[in-house]
């Protein structure tokens, strides 16, 4: 029987990144975030209004990620994330250029890339590193090209949708690459931080010992004296 060869392409890697974005934002905002089933081929990546950032990554493969939020999408994600964290609504900003919005979106972007790195590590057994994301507000389109980082990048754009029907876009540029599986290996299990924390807490909890059941005393027998 001929062994089937598994090949992972740059588009497969992009799908893992899209899954990380939807997973992190859905959990962080406690609302549904989805991505389009179609991917658009583009000539080059760019930062667009109203707020966004780009992140370089290197290691097992090289490239960069650009994410662009419209103002309404940025505010929706920021506000739902903060409300999910228990922050009162009256304390939240309604201006997308606020530092608070940029800080929250930057932290979420960092979580997305961390989740993505974990997926790559478990599925391809390679590691990638990236720089710290920093969100910035823009009022004009800015092209993003990194000289010498990738010779001939393949660029893609994916549209995401929030629960309130606001859109944001992820652009992905990576070197043309394929990963060909030579032999089967056991995939690493995805770690659940909450489960690990609960397990560690359980180890340090005092062990409750059950009290031994009280022994029932047998009724005392009294001997009757014989009368002659």
Automatic annotation (TrEMBL):
It comes from the Bacteria. Keywords: Chemotaxis. Residues 213-228 have a biased composition (Basic residues). InterPro entries: CheC-like_sf (IPR028976), DUF3334 (IPR024513). Pfam families: DUF3334 (PF11813). GO terms for biological process: chemotaxis. Residues 196-228 are annotated as: Disordered. The keyword Translocase does not apply. This is Uncharacterized protein.
